[in-house]
Amino acid sequence: MDIETAAWVSADNRWHLTTTTGKRYSCNVLFGCTGYYSYETPFEPSFPGQEAFSGKIVHPQKWTKEYDELVVGAKVAIIGSGATAVTILPSIADVTSHVTMVQRTPSYIAALPEMDPWANFVNDWLPQNIAMRINKWKAYLQGALFYQYCTRYPDAAIKEIKAGMFAEVSSVMDREEFDRHFTPPYNPWEQRLCLAPGGDFFRPIREGKATIVTGHIDHFTENGIQMKKGNHVEADLIISATGLTIQPNFPFSTIKVSINGEPYKASTHLIYNGIMISDVPNLAFIVGYTNASWTLKADIASMYFTKLLNYMRKNKITKVVPREDPEANVKHENFSGGLSSGYFTRSGDILPKQGDKFPWKGGVNYILDLVQMTFGGFSTDSLEFEMENKKIS
């Protein structure tokens, strides 16, 4: 069903939901699992002359089966260099005439081995439940240590990552060409680092099925893209993998929300513990990590909220609201997930803010979140409760 409105009413301490077809529901608690980006409105910048292009232009969020057929035997240009472009290029390279990735800014792309000998060894020699836990922690710690290495020693990380990328394409690129296409103007993990399973992104480049063009687009032509440096990219189909936009009503997606009749405005609220919103009663949501597996944060958020609900049930509490203490002098900052990616910087004015101290700052470090929100006792810090029409804190 498609929920159109959600209204919190303190008179009965319930959420009242209305669907687009007029059906009505009510509940004590809402748990949001809509992610953070807008499914309806991708980021689609306009390019000069794009109306002159004779082929079709499609953003990946608007992909249909029609485009599965249109790419076959076609010259395809992909605009963008992020995770979407890095995923699409190897997925279509074998059926197209040629693929050209047109990028303004290169990305760091690491080839991830398809086989993990350590994981296979553990799976073969240990019981499944033990092997699963060991492999989970090994994968997390490996990723966390690499993230810390990149942020603490960026120069060494750049050298190592670029060496790995060059090894993938050195058979078809000299060093000068490689540096032109694979030298991002930022440090690793200031924006997302892309992982290519089995190095699949690099294979079509080695095989001559794909090329990279780095530079600024001047305008579209009838049969492709004219670059400012003078080169022209021939294309029958253009895939505009230009990114996403954040929900303007985060974390409610397209739902129109009110609290006791007052419209909810995301940017006027603070994020609590990375899973709740200040001054919004009986609500939790899931947003995963930007630098680790999404499901790690989903697990923590679910465990924390389960603890909270059990605490409320045990103490006959009907309402919980995160409240900022005015005397705590919490500094409000834009929420970025620890990244400088365009979709976060473009959305700084519409997202809820984060604080500069716990519990209003968090959600980017799995170990800290795990210790503070699950292993320890349940903390009621900055939470306001209501029990039997009597407010407690």
Keywords, separated by commas or semicolons:
five-stranded mixed β-sheet, alpha/beta, 24 strands, five-stranded parallel β-sheet, 28% helix
Largest sheet: 5 strands, mixed
Distance linking N and C termini:
36 Å
Low confidence ranges: none
- DSSP E strands, number: 24
As a percent range, the share of helical residues equals 25-40%
Strand order of the largest sheet: 3-2-1-15-16
Structural class: alpha/beta
Query: How much beta, percentage-wise?
Result: 15-25%
The best one-word shape is globular
Number of helices: 10
Write down the Rg. 24 Å
The residue-averaged pLDDT reads 91
Structure description:
The two termini are 36 Å apart. A 5-stranded mixed sheet has the order 3-2-1-15-16, with no helix packed on it. The chain has 393 residues and is α/β, with parallel strands linked by helices. The protein is 28% helix and 23% strand. Helix 3 packs antiparallel against helix 4.
How is this fold's topology laid out?
Layout: E1 3-9, E2 14-19, E3 24-27, E4 30-32, E5 56-58, H1 65-70, E6 75-79, H2 83-92, E7 98-103, E8 109-112, H3 117-125, H4 128-152, H5 154-169, H6 175-181, E9 194-197, H7 203-206, E10 210-214, E11 217-221, E12 224-227, E13 232-234, E14 237-240, E15 256-259, E16 262-263, E17 271-272, E18 276-277, E19 283-285, H8 294-314, E20 319-322, E21 333-334, H9 342-345, E22 353-354, H10 366-375, E23 383-387, E24 390-392
Parallel strand pairs: 1-15, 4-19, 5-14, 6-7, 6-14, 7-10, 8-9
Antiparallel strand pairs: 1-2, 2-3, 11-12, 12-13, 15-16, 17-18, 20-23, 21-22, 23-24
Helix pairs in contact: 3-4, 4-5, 8-10
